């Protein structure tokens, strides 16, 4: 737990070497990659300092902590709308900040219709987040109007960043085949493009990104890897 991986190498068929960032190497005949995804960050001042102190990347996990508080959701796609709708039932006020004139092009129309009918959610378009404000905890969010270049501030107690996530594949992206979203391609047995190398969960191209699905995919990969090893000389 807590060990970070630097790289994965295939030395020969059925011979894998995993190197940790501490420089320690582990060799095996098979590997299961289950590194998941990392939330895409805003990259603005105050984000890292206030992470877990009012700034979060998971409405499903943390929304109940913001009962009767004023919060902001940063994002313009399906996940941002779904987060805002979850928070609308708990928070006293919800802002949703989109960095364009409207929601993202691939956003589901039914979700847009639903959010427009919720008075507690205020939509702010052309909003480019510039800073998360707070001392020990979040107390505000600064943004710039992309059309007027005017700087503005929202007084909020919580910020939910919903701008997507990035598969954690830096350590293996030169080894396995990836799809256009940098997710690992797998077959029905969770085998990657490399024989003996398996992958499971959110880091793969599996359709839905849910904990229960990832757990099931992990079980599949484990069984597949065991069967693979049993067939080796």
Question: How many β strands by DSSP?
Answer: 15
Helical stretch tally: 4
Separation of termini? 31 Å
Cα radius of gyration in angstroms: 21 Å
Structural class: alpha/beta
What does this structure look like?
There is one protein chain. Helices cover 18% and strands 30% of the residues. With 233 residues, the chain is an alpha/beta fold. The radius of gyration is 21 Å and the shape is elongated.
Keywords, separated by commas or semicolons:
alpha/beta; 15 strands; 233 residues; single chain; 4 helices; 3-stranded antiparallel β-sheet
In short:
The protein has 233 residues and is of the alpha/beta class. The protein contains four helices and 15 strands.
Write the layout of secondary structure elements.
Blueprint lengths: L4 E8 L2 E6 L4 E4 L2 E3 L3 E3 L15 E2 L2 H4 L7 E5 L3 H11 L4 E5 L11 H8 L4 E4 L2 E8 L3 E8 L5 E4 L3 E4 L3 E3 L29 E3 L11 H20 L3
Parallel strand pairs: 4-15, 6-13, 7-8, 7-13, 8-9
Antiparallel strand pairs: 1-2, 2-3, 5-14, 10-11, 11-12
């Amino acid at each position: 737990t807590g060990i970070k991986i630097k790289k994965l190498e295939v030395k020969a068929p059925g011979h894998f070497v995993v190197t940790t960032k501490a420089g320690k190497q582990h060799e095996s005949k098979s590997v299961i990659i289950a590194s998941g995804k990392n939330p895409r960050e805003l990259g603005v001042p105050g984000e890292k300092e206030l992470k877990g102190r009012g700034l979060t990347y998971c409405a499903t996990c943390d929304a109940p902590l913001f009962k009767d508080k004023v919060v902001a959701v940063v994002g313009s796609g399906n996940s941002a709308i779904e987060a805002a709708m979850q928070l609308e039932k708990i928070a006293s006020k919800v802002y949703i900040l989109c960095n364009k004139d409207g929601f993202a092009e691939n956003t589901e129309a039914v979700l847009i219709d639903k959010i427009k009918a919720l008075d507690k959610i205020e939509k702010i378009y052309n909003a480019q987040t510039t800073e998360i404000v707070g001392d020990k905890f979040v107390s505000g969010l600064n943004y710039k109007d992309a059309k007027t270049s005017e700087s503005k501030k929202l007084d909020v107690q919580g910020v939910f960043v919903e701008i997507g996530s990035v598969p954690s594949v830096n350590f293996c992206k030169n080894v396995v085949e990836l799809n256009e979203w940098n997710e690992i391609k797998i077959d029905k047995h969770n085998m990657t493009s490399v024989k003996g190398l398996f992958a499971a969960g959110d880091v793969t191209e599996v359709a839905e990104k849910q904990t229960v699905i990832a757990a099931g995919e992990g079980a599949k990969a484990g069984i597949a890897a065991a069967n693979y090893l049993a067939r080796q000389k």
